[in-house]
Amino acid sequence: MTRIALLGATGSIGRQAIEVIDANPELELVAATSGTTPIEGLAPLTQTGGDPTELLERAQADVVLNAVVGFAGLVPTMWALEHGVTLALANKESLVAAGELALAARRRGGGALVPVDSEHSALFQCAQLGEPESVVLTASGGPFRGRTRDELQHVTPEEALAHPTWSMGPKITVDSATLANKGLEIIEAHFLFGLAYDRIEVVVHPTSIVHGLVRFRDGATIAHLGYPDMRVPISYALTYPARAATPVPPLVLQTLEFAEPDVETFRLLALAREAGERGGTFPCAYNAANEVAVQAFLDGRLGFLDIAGVVEDVLARVDGAPARDLAELVAADQRARELVPIPA
Ligand SMILES: NC(=O)c1ccc[n+]([C@@H]2O[C@H](COP(=O)([O-])OP(=O)(O)OC[C@H]3O[C@@H](n4cnc5c(N)ncnc54)[C@H](OP(=O)(O)O)[C@@H]3O)[C@@H](O)[C@H]2O)c1
User: For 50-67, how does the pLDDT look when each residue is reduced to its tens digit (9 = 90+)?
Assistant: First the structure.
């Protein structure tokens, strides 16, 4: 039996994780958390809001699945890495923000870090075959693929929330529409696979069938294909290094299209790469400013194109000094949020 602690149990990933756990007699949900939604009875140990550290200590889980959205996922990520408990990581924001601190905690803890993000799960699986020379992340391009800046001037949250291939929580869906999600994923791949930024490529692939490709030094490129269904990477992360059956059908082959991303229109992709290359707490500031701006867009207080403007503005105003510990990281996140030029 594998004992699972699920953080963010009420979200899109959380609900699909429960489906995967319920369908597999070798997985047992021992603890669950949510932000505000009541979840009593969902697992032997539950908690809504607050610091999950004590719950994690009591749960004695083999795997912590972090499916919280945003920087709020930092505590369970650091706890699992520090304690050497396998971390199944959906919450990319914590790895992007904590970066080196997370890697240092993982070295001390010695546990496995298995990505749940579909692209990184794909790369992780391909990387079992050898040391990646470079990787390719695929992006669906979101609902606004092919649109010009003029055409994006007045798009609404409802339009941004209509993703063509994935059904996900609101924050990541908006991030997919701005390509900030792919930006966060570039930084996530840098920390997961130890690759320089010029070895992490992004291609637009509208049908989300190819999830990722790894290139090896002998000229071989291995790709991971499948229907876009998060139950596959969730199941892989919960059963790693084994594989379990899922209800997802085997792929019927089809024509695959790839194109260059439009980094002029979708500036958050280039800004993420830049923040990653600058290092220190620039990725943390990128993530913080983006979180605040996305919420403001969803609340109708900010235009779609202004999300990138806000992030660029904040990145120009922070010092990006590396955080020596978690307290400094939390302070850097807070400082970036305070610099966002939008009324609350
Ligand atoms: N959805 C996907 O298909 C997908 C794919 C790849 C990666 N991811 C990543 O997975 C993470 C979760 O995404 P999602 O789409 O599942 O989000 P979501 O549907 O918005 O769910 C977020 C979950 O986090 C909880 N939560 C929110 N704020 C919290 C806080 N301050 N403290 C503790 N818990 C909090 C929510 O609880 P309440 O319900 O109580 O608010 C909910 O359970 C994100 O990092 C996202 O980037 C998602």
Answer: 999 999 999 999 999 999
DSSP state of 281: T
Distance between CA atoms of residues 308 and 283, nearest Å: 14
Over residues 259-314, the pLDDT tens digits come to 999 999 999 999 999 999 999 999 999 999 999 999 999 999 999 999 999 999 99
Q: Which residues of the chain have pLDDT under 50?
A: none
User: How do beta strands 2-7 and 63-66 pair?
Assistant: parallel
Phi–psi pair at 89, nearest 5 degrees: -110, 110
CA 129 – CA 216 distance, rounded (Å): 9
| CB distance 246 to 32 below 8 Å | no
* DSSP E strands, the chain: 2-7, 27-34, 45-48, 63-66, 86-89, 113-115, 134-139, 200-204, 210-215, 221-225
Distance CA 178, CA 170 (A): 13
User: Whose alpha carbon is nearest atom 14 of ligand 1?
Assistant: 169
Residue 202 pairs in a beta bridge with 137
Contacts of residue 299, Cβ cutoff 8 Å, sequence gap at least 6: none
The count of C-alpha atoms lying within 13 angstroms of the C-alpha of 277, restricted to the half-sphere facing its C-beta, is 10
Amino acid 344: pLDDT: 65
CB 257 within 8 A of CB 206: yes
Residues flanking ligand 1, CB < 6 Å: 8-14, 34-37, 67-69, 72, 90-93, 117, 166, 168-169, 171-172, 230
Q: Where are the beta strands (DSSP E) in 92-187?
A: 113-115, 134-139
Comparing CA positions, the residue from 139, 149, 142, 144 lying closest to residue 265 is 149
Phi, psi dihedrals of residue 258, rounded to the nearest 5°:
-135, 145
User: Ligand 1, atom 15: nearest CA belongs to which residue?
Assistant: 169
